[in-house]
């Protein structure tokens, strides 16, 4: 399969690396088709976008007509001989920023319906971070609308693949209340796959083990470290500011946060305040309610059962070691 190239940093493109198990999972979905929507969630920057874009190529090679939309970046790909699909997506992407985001997200469903009307037997729609584009309050409605295309198609079809990827942990409960989608987690890259990415970075760089221990295999943070000249303090500073780790939040939850940076599973205890858990999820700092490490429950490689050096607990994990470090430094007031 052709391996696509993707930006790791503003001045650096790399070839898609590893994710063999995640691609295999997509291939399995393609072979049997879907009866529900798959909502794949995971740490911000763990590689969901790269996986979806590589999966679009995979599905094309498996004979699918494929629509991929990334409304936040006003980006799309259309692998189909129905020219109207690419034309309408191009028109949508050319609109004003807010309008284009909503239009691209909506078109992903409308054009899937169109492909079915045109008697295309194998159709795939891959939607990347659409919840942020349409507003988090509309997430469940969007999933239901996409499921409607699967359950009540305008024409008969052979197989359909419908996958939504998101970093927004706050959506899980709302979507999970209904039986419209399967919630499937994805984790950061495994060590050897991450090494393949790391080895593509030119110039002088730290030892691989050092970068692995501070990023936990997160490709986005790898790119941010490269962009920051491998200065960890700069990246942590951005995280503290970007995640809103202000004194009021830190002081309110200080006792629990001090315990959680040592072992995130303390947030799984019955005494742990749900408000804190929801705020940490909303800030994209933790992954909560991790399933068992059976690969069947995951989109790709599974994290360790527990690895406190990387901030991974059995049921709760910091998105990366640097996210945990940001909280630690905020607690210290540095």
Text of the CATH class of the largest domain? Alpha Beta
Radius of gyration equals 20 Å
Number of domains: 2
Pick out the low-confidence regions: none
Number of helical segments? 15
Order of helices and strands: EEHEHEEHHEHHEHEHHHHHHHEEH
Question: What sort of overall outline do the alpha carbons produce when their principal axes are compared?
Answer: globular
- Which structural category do the helix and sheet elements fall into? alpha/beta
Taking strands numbered 1, 2, ... along the chain, how are they ordered across the largest sheet? 5-4-6-7-3-8
CATH architecture of the largest domain: 3-Layer(aba) Sandwich
Number of separate strands: 10
Helix content: 40-55%
- What average pLDDT do the residues reach? 95
What is CATH's topology name of the largest domain? Rossmann fold
CATH homologous superfamily identity of the largest domain: P-loop containing nucleotide triphosphate hydrolases
Characterize the largest beta sheet: strand count, sense, and whether it forms a barrel: 6 strands, mixed
Please indicate the percent range of residues in DSSP E strands (runs of 2 or more): 15-25%
| Intertermini distance | 47 Å
